[in-house]
Amino acid sequence: MSTLQPGSTLQNGKYEIQRVLGQGGFGVTYLALQQGLNRIVAIKEFFMENFCVRNADTHHVTIATESSRELVERYRNKFLKEARNIAKLEHPNIVSIIDVFEENSTAYYVMKYAQNGSLDDKIKREGHLSEADAKRYILKIANALRFVHQHKMTHLDVKPANILLSDNDEPWLIDFGLSKQYDAKTGEQTSSTPLGYSPGYAPIEQYMAGGAGTFSPESDIYSLGATFYKLLTGDTPPDASTVANEGLPVQELKAKGVSQQTIYAIFQAMEPLRKDRLHDMDSFISLLEEGPVQGPSEQPAIQPPSQPYTVQTIISGETAPAAGVQDMGKIDQKQQLVHKAEKKRIRNLLIVIATMVVCVAIAALVNKCRGNTKGGAQLEIDSLEIDSVALDAQWTNDTKTFDVNGVSFTMIPVEGGTFTMGATSEMTAPDSDEKPTHQVTLSSYYMGETEVTQALWQAVMGSNPSWFQGDNLPVEWVSWHDCQTFISRLNSLTGKRFRLPTEAEWEYAARGGNQSRHTQYSGSSRIDDVVWYEDNSGRKTHPVKTKQPNELGLYDMTGNVWEWCQDWYDSYSSDAQTDPTGASYGTERVCRGGSWCYSLDCCRSSNRSSFAPGYSCDNFGLRLALSL
What pTM was computed for the model? Predict the structure, then answer.
């Protein structure tokens, strides 16, 4: 017997147990009658499953093994301390803790009970909620979480089952069993209850050791966005690792008639990388109430991808990317390094998943084709062949202009040469993946004068997925897969061999090729001369060719939108290379250049980033390369 039985009493008969409401790894929640006031309450009991044992006669809780005594005692003391901290949180949308005590050799706290059950119960009864009802609940819980965060606490287990409904239909946030308290000055945790997670609602950092070691409202923001998704669709969102690798499915949201404004807010809240999420509840509340800043006058429908993200596409027919990447506040140099490390941890997690099916991957590698893993990250294999001999034979140092369905675009010649790739001396505060520097020799090629515009994408694809609308704006909200489909159709229309640039080609062109003046950014060391980034963009993309070009006549090589490259992401080698095409397989494709909502640290010509090929958002676009 692991729970108190109905009729059992606590505090000398003050509370009488009615039944068990729920049981988890660290505690049991009971429905109880408070005798003196004749009211129903909920009581949370500290009981570590697999570590604690209950005596059937005395109800006392003992520790299963002596070796675990110190662990259990430490967490019981933390349970009591945090319960008392939570009792200080007086907010209309946070459940009131009315008593804290020790008994039966364990600890308890008593809460008000909501007769109408939880939002999870409501979803089970109704299937899903209207957008208006769901939004009302979410805004109230967002305000409650803002209050929690002001007290340097995080909840870390926001989900529909932990939101009760009072008699007057007010939502109450409950169950702070995973919550953490942080030092107001340092931001380091002062509590150390076990870090758990609820699949579908927990962000990816909660799966990692030390993932909640510092104060991070972003973790609760992710969970609240996932809760919003569940209320609107009735479906639990995919696990965080799936969202990171494949994107967030939105077919059910669209099928329920959810507005673009709300979909956008959910995307922003559920960004896989913590650094890319909204950084505080005020930003989430503002976005939900007011919509995206500088957004289009007509909100576009989110386009389905051109092909499945993996063999296990989340839903048949449509899967949309995770939220648009938005850095809502300034990110200093130290934070950028932390963010980079966090992204590497996510990459490592996906690689671990991929290795679970290593036999499939090896077979795919042997057969020189794409291999899809089962139940985890997609491991794809490809080979980019660039016919440099044929290209050199036809290459001339002249610009080339093409016309597709009335839209013209220009390709700039990039004469081949040898350069040092990576964190050269002019690059300030480079990240570790920009090293070691190495010599790269490239054959000649052509590079798009500008990022692909929405007008050109529309002319080729017949649709425009972009959030910020305008013919001369760069196309965005496109995944690497979408880019491949666009290029395939463009080549069919023109008879040419357009493609994405390799990472080496991109960096060589960004540096100015053999005309390079060795500046930190593409074309200048003064960032405002050549780059649209978070400090000057006004939180939106800008028409191409409105900043100065670099030495080759290429515009916006840094800033405006991230540009997909052909390569799989991999670490650098110090070996000299000729016409490198990157790794043969991987889980993420390279992106270069920074964007309108990223800091200046992402805009130097050597900076590298990478994302799953199915990922897209409102600052991901492309630039064409050309082999003749």
Answer: 0.47
